[in-house]
Design goal:
Layout lengths: L1 E15 L2 E6 L4 E7 L2 H13 L4 E4 L14 H9 L11 E9 L2
Parallel strand pairs: 4-5
Antiparallel strand pairs: 1-2, 1-3, 1-5
Helix pairs in contact: 1-2
């Protein structure tokens, strides 16, 4: 099993003029999970956080047409097969920002 650290922030969606932005609260939270791969780690953390009833979004990809969190197309497909949507639009609740592999 591999170890992953998921970094997320809590915050709220705020309307700023014609656009909606995510306004993060100070501080980041980390969750450590053991999983076979990044997609499975994301699914575990998503399921764990969703039990609190908060909306969950993910950080958008760095490049214009890239996948959120730098996920591969295969990882996105695996997450989608688990009936999880990768929302990048600002939502009030939790925004997952990074998935780090720890070996």
């Amino acid at each position: 099993m591999n170890k992953f650290t998921i970094i997320y922030v809590k915050g709220r969606a705020v309307d700023r003029g014609a656009s909606r932005v995510f306004e993060a609260m100070p501080g980041k939270t980390t969750l450590d999970v053991e999983s076979h791969d990044r997609a499975s780690a994301f699914i575990k953390v998503y399921e764990r956080l969703s039990k609190f009833g908060m909306e969950i979004s993910v950080a958008a990809g760095v490049e214009k047409d890239s996948n959120p969190l730098g996920l591969t197309n295969a990882e996105v497909a695996m997450i989608t097969e688990a009936n999880i949507s990768l929302w990048t639009a600002p939502l009030s609740g939790i925004r997952i920002e990074k998935i780090l592999w720890n070996g």
